[in-house]
Amino acid sequence: xxxxxxxxxxxxxxxxxxxxxxxxxxxxxxxxxxxxxxxxxxxxxxxxxxxxxxxxxxxxxxxxxxxxxxxxxxxxxxxxxxxxxxxxxxxxxxxxxxxxxxxxxxxxxxxxxxxxxxxxxxxxxxxxxxxxxxxxxxxxxxxxxxxxxxxxxxxxxxxxxxxxxxxxxxxxxxxxxxxxxxxxxxxxxxxxxxxxxxxxxxxxxxxxxxxxxxxxxxxxxxxxxxxxxxxxxxxxxxxxxxxxxxxxxxxxxxxxxxxxxxxxxxxxxxxxxxxxxxxxxxxxxxxxxxxxxxxxxxxxxxxxxxxxxxxxxxxxxxxxxxxxxxxxxxxxxxxxxxxxxxxxxxxxxxxxxxxxxxxxxxxxxxxxxxxxxxxxxxxxxxxxxxxxxxxxxxxxxxxxxxxxxxxxxxxxxxxxxxxxxxxxxxxxxxxxxxxxxx
Length: 438
Hints:
By secondary structure, the chain is an alpha/beta fold. Helix content is 32%, strand content 12%. The longest helix has 14 residues, at 192-205.
């Protein structure tokens, strides 16, 4: 049997840092098993913690239990934090209150001030109030680097024609807010508004005529895409771009009404390079490297990192079955298509509520810096480079061990170079005596 509760000093340290722990603590099986091994938690306690539906509730249930689990509970918790790569939280708990008041913490700061209250009252906090920024970075805004005339002349005959102005039309559909009645279990995609603005600026600078639509139902998305495909202007330009940003599952994306949309191609856009970029989850599995996440997946996150998964678990399967939907995105069956996905099949796509989606951030950066001399397929390979090795997040975020890997499918017959900002005289002279070939 455990002795009396932990010391007043240790109890006060947990209470003083309860808000920080709630925002940053990663309560996973490894941490819980460590506490079980030290006989701090019983099996039933461990199960009740991991059964909670949100990360905040997991953290708070653990924080409510620890003060009652004996004088060794605090030191065992510190050891468990170190074992699970959360040394910064261990340091936070063991530093002196005086240092805390005068020191400059390197940890992320809350977006809004909140009064420190007792643990019980903080059980009612909302995910909205607990969001914080990982750092002060904003999406890269470096101008698109121009292609040189010499590079253009050396590649243009072996690649798709890309000299129209505009280069083509771009459609961006971004679902950020979902119907609270029809899709009550689809959370707002905070940061989605950052993505669509990033894409609008990016493709405008790449000389595309960009149209952005936000918050469309599945039928509205379908109508919008069909209208885009019917546009007669496609006959006079050299390419097109379609970007879909929403919650999703493997093979489909959600409209704001909670209905699923399947995506295909159009005969009207044949023989020209068609670029699709899909920012949505393709499953619920979190890619944590060698550590696999077991048990129920939690959708609600108090941090900046969220997932673009849709409905989860049994409810999702029942809904799709009731609708008779087999949500499979129709991968390119026709030629001249390339489709970039934010995540691998079966895995979640990550999104920062301040800076936008991981995939869109890297796509924006890669296209701005490399489209001058790199074809699109190689650019999409390079998008994955920042994901390799270390996770993208500093320790302190509950997803800090998670990774993301994008992928693409292609039925292109040639390389796609965007040739940004090549002077018009160079374009005109090169094709002046050349047959019009796509």
